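Example 9 (inverse folding). The structure is encoded as follows.
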């Protein structure tokens, strides 16, 4: 009789242990699956500090302020397309240089790089509108990175140009990307546009 009871007890313990192991394994698989499906987003932007139209000499560029709103509300990482080329220039001189770069199709260099852009599923792309589209330094970035297959969400800061040709230029550059509706904000209003950004982001599930 004792042997029979010990045998039953052993079977119960074995079944219990196996059941616990199976449950833990399933939970781990679910967690791993969630990590694989949940890809991070990033805000890629160019922003010009210094002398700007309508707002004078500013320490933080208008587009950077909007980029910070987006990161704050979505948790998106940031990569700023930064260059020293335009530092210290007057607004008029910068306008002439930007026009010349566009006409010649120049691709100015920028600092730093994104180590692995493939891990980002959603990419916010923002910049000021210079002569109807993004500054040429942003096209340098576009040429280096294939964003086809990504969800791209454009935004601009401006003083009357709206989105300009920015959205169309992104679509031409990345015909297989999922390009969403863009947001344009007046540069002189960025400090009071946080709620506008929040409302816009809700369209994308943030």
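The amino acid assigned to each position is listed next.
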């Amino acid at each position: 009789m004792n042997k029979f009871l010990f045998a039953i007890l052993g079977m119960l313990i074995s079944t219990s242990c196996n059941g616990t192991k199976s449950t833990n394994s399933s939970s781990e698989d679910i967690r791993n699956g969630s990590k694989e499906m949940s890809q991070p987003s990033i805000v890629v932007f160019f922003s010009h500090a210094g002398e700007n139209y309508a707002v004078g000499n500013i320490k933080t560029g208008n587009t950077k302020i909007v980029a910070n709103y987006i990161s704050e509300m979505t948790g998106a990482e940031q990569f700023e397309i930064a260059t020293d080329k335009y530092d210290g220039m007057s607004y008029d001189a910068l306008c002439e240089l930007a026009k010349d770069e566009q006409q010649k199709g120049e691709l100015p260099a920028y600092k730093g790089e994104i180590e692995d852009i493939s891990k980002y599923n959603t990419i916010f792309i923002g910049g000021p509108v210079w002569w109807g589209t993004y500054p040429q330094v942003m096209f340098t970035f576009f040429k280096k990175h294939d964003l086809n297959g990504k969800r791209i969400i454009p935004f601009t800061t401006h003083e009357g140009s709206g989105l300009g040709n920015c959205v169309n230029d992104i679509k031409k550059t990345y015909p297989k990307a999922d390009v969403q509706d863009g947001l344009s904000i007046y540069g002189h209003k960025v400090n009071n546009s946080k709620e506008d950004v929040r409302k816009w982001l809700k369209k994308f599930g943030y």
